Amino acid sequence: MRADFGIKDTATGTVIPPDKSAVNSFIMNTEGAGRLFAPSGMKNGPLPEHYEPVESPVTSIMSKQQNNPVAARYKGEFSKLAQTASPDSPYIATTHRLVEHYQSGAVTRNCLMLAELMPVRLSVKVNVMPILKPLKVNEKEVEIIGSPWYWGYQGLAPGSTANDLTPCVGDANTMIPEYKAFICNITKSAFNANTLG
Fold first, then answer.
1. Which terminal residue of the chain, N or C, has fewer Cβ atoms less than 10 Å from its own Cβ?
2. Is residue 176 part of a domain?
3. What does the angle CA 72 – CA 74 – CA 79 come to, to the nearest 5 degrees?
4. pLDDT tens column, 113-166
5. C-alpha pair distances (Å), 191 with each of 118, 146, 187, 196
6. Is the whole-model pTM more than 0.70?
């Protein structure tokens, strides 16, 4: 390692020597210190607040505001959302992966080795596993359903994804979708697995 090696500070453009950069982890802030809130550029704030997901099985006990009022909501076909604590959607649902996943879905969908590990989609009648324990919220026990997310849209293993079921709502600042928390119901299907060839 070179003796003059340093880290270029993004905020100031100056080079910070290792003896100082290793001590201060907040080199991305102009004042070089941690912050309680973002002073500018946020659509909500300045202090963070907990909101329930847009689709939630319970009414918030922490705030009169149920969910983020400045969340990005879509129009048309993508605007359909379940009502809070809807008896028609009594379960919490989340999506997850069963094999490795890159940060980008586009990269993951086009990785041959990952597509071979989890080819197209899973098809099960019912798979009840004690992995996801029920949550107790507002003195109410709510079951959790986990849905594998593979792969869909385009790539080496196209097809439907679990995200086809999720609400189209984005974070107000990053537009990251609420794909990890929504509510749903389970009904018996008329699908007959014996008819598959």
1. C
2. yes
3. 125
4. 877 776 655 555 556 677 788 888 878 889 988 887 766 667 777 777 777 788
5. 22, 20, 11, 10
6. no
